[in-house]
Amino acid sequence: MHEWKMTEAVIEEVMSQAQRSGMRRIDKIVLSVGGEEHLTAETVEFCFRALAAETPLKEVSLEIRAREGSGGIIVEAIEGER
Q1: By the 8 A CB rule, do 75 and 29 touch?
Q2: Exposed / middle / buried, residue 25 (Cβ in 10 Å: 0-12, 13-18, 19+)
C-alpha cells in the first residue's frame, strides 16, 4: 500500500522536525494531500492512526487539507510545546 509508506515517511518527518525545533510535546499536525486518486484524507488518517498508535503521536490532533495537483503528503504545520 503506497499510502502506508507515504504516511510512515510523514511520521518520521514530523518526529524529526519536532526534535530539531526542541518540541517536548506535539499537540496538532496539519497535513495537505495532493489530488492523487488513491490518496485521500480518510486513507491518510487511517494509516496515520495505525502507524502512530505506538508513538508519542498517538493522540495528536490531525488536520488534513486537500490541495490541487499532485505531490503526495506535505507537513504544513506542527503545533505543540517547546
Answers
A1: yes
A2: exposed
